[in-house]
């Protein structure tokens, strides 16, 4: 094999691994995002003020 063919095969393999990793991370996400956006917080115990009538 020539040097150029080996480079192309390595780049193609790296691209396949990158796309596979992105697909895996999009399908198997954690429960919360971990970026302090409060998307995994349970707000069921918080009392909401009642509107005045």
TrEMBL record:
Q: Record's Pfam families?
A: FeoB_associated
Q: Where are the transmembrane segments?
A: 6-24
Keywords from the named record? Membrane, Transmembrane, Transmembrane helix
Name this polypeptide is given: FeoB-associated Cys-rich membrane protein
Protein source organism: Mucilaginibacter terrae
Upper classification of the organism = Bacteria, Pseudomonadati, Bacteroidota, Sphingobacteriia, Sphingobacteriales
